[in-house]
């Protein structure tokens, strides 16, 4: 099949996977056989990671040893910490710091696909949290092995133990974004490992793909619209004006999900549980109102397009509710998606072939080489 320019491999099947199934027509996401709505709000992130890496949920004893295996791999080498310090001095973004630090996870270890996968999943919170603290003028906090993965992420960022409500909210978020079919970063990871390169290289390449604004790199704007609207009574006029000027409403519409984005529903429920005190609740209620108004006006402006709320809308609200600044949104996404990246890399290693598509050559033919001074 010859691809049209800019076709972007849409609808091309490039792998078989048991990891996740994205059904855009039905608005369903299945992770390792479980509906997202069933799994994400209940499971620990360690359980979901185990499911992706091993193909089934762990029993209590397997879960306990998997948790120990992850917790024991949280520590960063002094070389990684000093590289993060150097990056902080030059003020690079958190996602770039993660991109720079990820390859150092191979230091002091022997390459091994399974161990690389666990190390990458385990170490991301320490990299992101340590770097954020260094960048904002704080010392990184020591790694703790007694906290759950999600609690440890928040501990590494804020330097204090989160409450159960915050931990549950982050856990649900990490579970919700852990895998999503053959998205660009996951495909990148599979391409890299398909050359029989290593899992750390696959994860590093995937971070590079994720940071682009067409993938995970532009998560703030949905929240900005809610802040701009400020009061429910301003919602209709502001949204109407945006649509009239041809602006797209951030957090709405999806290439694949045409009925609903199941991740938005799961994250909306998680945000509902997180935003508890009265002042926080006001922002949550405003966001809900903005969402309803936007859906109504989108249907009016684009009838039949079935533009629904997407994952970005409630991601922004949930992560903001956890106190995470916008700069940490994409790295937090990476901390969840790394479970999928590593599981895909291992699946590709086990079952895949070298990924090597064709390109349609559209350049010149028959040219003859001339020395530079005769061109
Ligand atoms: N606001 C207003 N109009 C929209 C929106 C939106 N959010 N989304 C789509 N439309 C309109 C388009 O203008 C187009 O109208 P037209 O045919 O009259 O020109 C029609 O709906 C179809 O749009 P497409 O661009 O063909 O839809 P596509 O599937 O390519 O785009 C996308 C999906 C990029 C997500 C789009 O809906 C969008 O830009 N949304 C806003 C940005 C956003 O929320 N991004 C995060 C997505 S979540 C994720 O990918 C992780």
Topology of this structure?
Layout: E1 20-23, E2 28-31, E3 34-35, H1 36-39, H2 45-54, H3 60-71, H4 78-90, H5 94-101, H6 113-135, H7 149-158, H8 164-176, H9 184-193, H10 199-210, H11 221-229, H12 232-244, H13 262-274, H14 278-301, H15 311-321, H16 329-351
Antiparallel strand pairs: 1-2, 2-3
Helix pairs in contact: 2-16, 4-6, 5-6, 5-10, 6-7, 6-16, 7-8, 8-13, 8-16, 9-10, 9-16, 10-16, 12-14, 13-15
Bound molecules: acetyl coenzyme *A.
Describe the structure.
This protein is mostly helical and 375 residues long. It has two domains: 20-217 and 326-351, Citrate Synthase, domain 1 (Orthogonal Bundle); 219-321, Cytochrome p450-Terp, domain 2 (Orthogonal Bundle). Helix content is 55%, strand content 3%. The chain contains 16 helices and three strands. Helix 8 packs across helix 16 (329-351) and helix 12 (232-244) runs parallel beside helix 14 (278-301). The two termini are 37 Å apart. Bound molecules: acetyl coenzyme *A.
Name a few traits of the molecule:
375 residues, mainly alpha, Citrate Synthase, domain 1, Cytochrome p450-Terp, domain 2, 16 helices, 3% strand, binds acetyl coenzyme *A
Question: What does this entry show, briefly?
Answer:
This protein is mainly α.
């Amino acid at each position: 099949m010859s691809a049209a320019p800019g076709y972007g491999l849409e609808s091309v099947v490039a792998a078989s996977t048991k990891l996740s199934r994205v059904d855009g027509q039905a608005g369903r996401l299945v992770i390792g056989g479980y509906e997202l709505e069933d799994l994400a709000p209940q499971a620990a992130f360690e359980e979901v990671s185990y499911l992706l890496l091993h193909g089934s949920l762990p029993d209590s004893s397997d879960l306990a040893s998997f948790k120990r295996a992850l917790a024991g791999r949280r520590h960063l080498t002094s070389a990684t910490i000093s590289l993060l310090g150097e990056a902080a001095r030059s003020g690079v973004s958190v996602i770039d710091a993660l991109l720079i630090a990820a390859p150092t996870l191979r230091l002091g270890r022997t390459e091994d696909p399974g161990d690389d996968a666990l190390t990458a999943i385990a170490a991301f919170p320490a990299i992101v949290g340590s770097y954020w603290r260094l960048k904002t003028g704080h010392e990184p906090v020591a790694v703790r092995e007694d906290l759950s993965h999600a609690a440890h992420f928040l501990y590494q960022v804020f330097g204090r133990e989160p409450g159960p409500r915050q931990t549950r909210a982050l856990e649900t978020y990490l579970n919700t974004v852990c895998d999503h079919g053959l998205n660009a970063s996951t495909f990148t990871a599979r391409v890299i490992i398909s050359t029989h390169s290593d899992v750390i290289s696959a994860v590093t390449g995937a971070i590079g793909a994720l940071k682009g604004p067409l993938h995970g790199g532009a998560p703030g704007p949905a929240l900005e619209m809610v802040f701009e609207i400020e009061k429910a009574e301003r919602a209709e006029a502001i949204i109407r004006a945006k649509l009239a000027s041809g602006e797209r409403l951030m957090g709405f519409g999806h290439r694949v999900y045409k009925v609903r984005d199941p991740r938005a529903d799961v994250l909306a429920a998680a945000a509902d549980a997180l935003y508890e005190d009265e002042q926080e609740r006001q922002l949550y209620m405003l966001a809900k109102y903005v969402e309803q108004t936007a859906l109504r006006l989108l249907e009016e402006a684009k009838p039949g397009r079935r533009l629904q709320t997407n994952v970005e809308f409630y991601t922004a609200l949930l992560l903001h509710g956890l106190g995470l600044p916008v700069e940490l949104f994409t790295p937090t996404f990476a901390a969840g998606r790394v479970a999928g990246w590593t599981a895909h890399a291992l699946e590709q290693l086990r079952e895949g072939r070298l990924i090597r598509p064709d390109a349609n050559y559209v350049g010149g033919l028959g040219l003859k080489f001339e020395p530079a001074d005769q061109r």
